[in-house]
Automatic annotation (TrEMBL):
Family: Belongs to the short-chain dehydrogenases/reductases (SDR) family.
Superkingdom of origin: Bacteria
Family matches, as Gene3D superfamilies: NAD(P)-binding Rossmann-like Domain
GO molecular function: oxidoreductase activity
Cited SUPFAM superfamilies: NAD(P)-binding Rossmann-fold domains (SSF51735)
Name this polypeptide is given: SDR family oxidoreductase
Signal peptide range in chain numbering: none
Pfam family, one: adh_short
Record keywords: Oxidoreductase
Enzyme Commission (EC) number: 1.-.-.-
InterPro entries cross-referenced by the UniProt entry: NAD(P)-bd_dom_sf, Sc_DH/Rdtase_CS, SDR_fam
Length: 267
């Protein structure tokens, strides 16, 4: 998959991985709709990118907003050929997470992907090509100490991306799933659970001690390189693959190890 000349939508693109992806795509001669809940941040990124980018603000878990993103892309640049479902939130802590926290996390981390695919995939199948990149997390392959909603929804995001690839991969729809560990973004520096600093601190400590914290730009470079090879699983932290193998090879041993790790972190 070559990105040059393609039209892309990137959600959560006002900062972090999304902003880095938008910059990397435009540097590779793609044209991008920069979407973010914070329209000011989206406009800032789009202004940095010049005429090959346009900003749209809104909640990208809302199907009407996704439809607007697609309409803006088609009007400004042409048919959407790449969709980066990158927006995500941390959610709540554990069993004390509220119904509202669960609902919001499911909406943003999972259903936003489903709704975008519903609007885009039929057209991609008809045209014979399209690329859907889902940002999940290493938490979607392993788990997230300190946050049940984050862990569960990231697992679901991986599961939906798998299903999408199996179902439509022979019909021209390419799918990749991005699963990094620590990345220097607001989600990490601001805490995965802003409403519960204690649980958030545990979650962030678990991420920071598991491996290197990468820059968003490093992650964006990894994504584009993986898309060129059409890899499904994108792992900016290669060690996640071995962790995943350890988990699947002996689930009981892995869970015992994660309990010890949580205890070591003070959880």
């Amino acid at each position: 998959m070559e990105i040059a000349g393609k039209v892309a939508i990137v959600t959560g693109a006002g900062a972090g991985i999304g902003a880095a992806l938008a910059h990397r795509l435009v540097a590779g001669d793609a044209r991008v709709v920069v979407a973010d809940l914070d329209v000011g941040n989206a406009e800032k990124v789009a202004a940095e990118l010049g005429g090959d980018a346009v900003a749209v603000g809104g909640d990208v878990a809302d199907e009407a907003v996704i439809a607007e993103l697609i309409a803006v892309a088609e009007r400004e640049f042409g048919p959407v050929e790449m969709y980066f479902a990158n927006a995500g939130i941390g959610g709540g802590p554990g069993l004390d997470s509220t119904e509202a926290q669960w609902a919001a996390t499911i909406d943003v981390n999972v259903m936003a992907h489903v709704r975008a695919a519903k609007l885009l995939v039929p057209g991609w199948v008809e045209r014979g090509s399209g690329y859907f990149v889902a940002t999940a997390s290493a938490a979607g392959l392993l788990t997230q100490i300190g946050s049940a909603p984050y862990s569960v929804t990231k697992h679901a995001a991986v599961g939906f991306a798998e299903w999408l690839s199996v179902t439509y991969g022979d019909k021209g729809v390419r799918v990749s799933c991005l699963c990094p560990m620590g990345v220097d973004t607001q989600l990490l520096t601001g805490g995965l659970i802003p409403d519960n600093p204690e649980a958030g601190e545990l979650a962030v400590k678990a991420v920071r001690t598991a491996g290197a914290v990468l820059t968003p730009e490093e992650v964006a470079d990894t994504v584009v390189a993986a898309m060129a090879e059409e890899h499904f699983l994108i792992l900016p932290h290669p060690e996640v693959l071995q962790m995943y193998r350890n988990k699947s090879g002996d689930y009981d041993r892995w869970i015992s190890g994660m309990r010890r790790y949580q205890s070591m972190l003070g959880g």
